[in-house]
Write a structure and sequence with these properties.
Layout (H helix, E strand, L loop, with lengths): L1 E2 L5 E2 L2 H8 L9 H9 L3 H5 L6 E2 L7 E4 L14 E4 L2 H17 L29
Length: 131
């Protein structure tokens, strides 16, 4: 990972390339690629509503980030418009194709609903329980 002078970490170009070209999975998880391409924080992405994703807007594809956590403002306290580069549009379009099978009961109409079931191409984590 790379670091900035402000202490932020980011994936380097070679790390991003490794995720995109990984042969251990059928295709990289679109949610991870979307996060990489937009810079959204994890909870911001979890709180995106489908209605906040605008792929065909005349002013250009974008998403509106309203929440930083369920019912809570973003870290800056401001709603913001995040432009989507062409690759991000492709990734979110692919995710929208997969979403009905990954989250058939998406009652809150979220772009990235969290769930306990195994998602497409996401390996199940196993944890041992202590008795």
């Amino acid at each position: 990972m790379g670091d900035t002078a402000d202490g932020w970490t980011f994936l380097t170009e070679s790390e991003q390339s490794a995720i995109r070209s990984c042969t251990d999975i059928f295709e990289p998880d679109p949610r991870i690629l979307f996060a990489m391409l937009t810079g959204l924080r994890q909870r911001e992405q979890w709180c995106l509503h489908l209605a906040d994703v605008h792929l065909d807007d005349p002013s250009g594809p974008h998403t509106i980030v309203r929440f930083g956590a369920p019912g809570r403002a973003t870290k800056s306290g401001k709603i913001r418009r995040v432009p989507l580069i062409p690759e991000a549009v492709q990734v979110v379009s692919r995710w929208l194709e997969l979403l009905p099978s990954c989250a058939p009961k998406n009652t809150h109409k979220l772009l990235c609903p969290r769930q306990r079931a195994v998602d497409v191409n996401v390996p199940r984590r196993t944890a041992s329980r202590r008795n």
